[in-house]
Design brief:
The complex is a heterodimer. By secondary structure, chain A is mainly alpha-helical. Chain A contains 10 helices and no strands. In chain A, helix 1 crosses helix 2, helix 2 runs antiparallel to helix 3 and helix 7 crosses helix 9. Chain B has a domain of 52 residues. The chains are: A mainly alpha, B mainly alpha.
Amino acid sequence: MWPGVNTIGGASAGPDVDAQLMLRVRDGDEDSFRVLLDKHRNPLVHFLYRMVQVQPVAEELAQEVFLRIYRTRASYEPTAKFTTWMFRIATHLALNWLRDEKHARAEQRLDGPRGDEMPAWEVPDRKPSVEQRMVHQARMQEIREAIARLPDKQRAAVLMHKYEEMEYSQIASVLECSESAVKSLLFRAYETLRAGLAHMVAGGKR
Amino acid sequence: MKCPLQTEETPVVLLDYAAGRLEGARRLKLERHLAGCARCEAFRAEQAEVWDLLDAWEPPAVSTGFNRVLWRRIDEAAAAPWHRKLAEALRFGAWKPAFPIAAAAMVIVAGFVFDHRTESRPGSDPSGATATQISTPNSGIEADQVEKTLDDIQLLRQFDAVSSIRSKPI
């Protein structure tokens, strides 16, 4: 029921700006789609990257999300926030991918650090020493692994809460569960992260 | 304020505080509580440290050709023949639950159509109908019953013949 299901709850406040743009897309305005694409491309790819932790896959899934949005434009109804709908599609695709690729993903994690883990903008202005780079890479690797060890739904909830700054109600709408279930998911997820990353924060990491 | 760690099932108020999303009176109230509750303060400090660690995790940059690839795919999808569009739509996992329902519906419809066509075949004569009946499993049971009845009739005739011989005066 995914494609064409644009009737997600939680839109009591009326159409948002994105929803208005999407209505124009529905009416054949491709420029409005370009605006939506430019606005949401990076947050969406970043969310998917943190979910699946493989950049090409994250981009492929993000393309699939935008393709679905475009394909179902004719039946779009602004009954929910546009981002809720978009992240709901994205989460669905990411959870499917994680389910299907669990073994392959485990092997990739065992391969160790990937080339994409330290983008240029993470490097401070002054040139870091080899040792600093290695320490930084090791820390990022540990954070990624701690997130990857979370159950899929907990991971999605944490990423939406932490990086997308979504409200509990919106996360609940995306994950199709109650608000109290989201709070419970988040509490357990952060508890696991606190335990998993405790060694990184105990010894004066910064 | 009652201790969130002791009174609430999921003390998200502490998560909200560490995330900087608690404001106004609730924030002041919690801060007063934190000042006197070592357990909650330890929880908050740990959560804040995890929050900072997660902040450090930056994803890689998105490919510069992302939009170009997307528009190409949109154009390809628009130009694709209908069967490819259908296959593409069915490729998504969300349609999987619909498959068994669709298959069941197709079997029912096919059965109905087949049955309907068999019953109302134009030009079928009574002998043809009899032949059709004999070929069905139910008509097999009827044939057995007819055969048994014929046997019973024959047996009765034999009894009748025997009794008529016995009743003849010697």
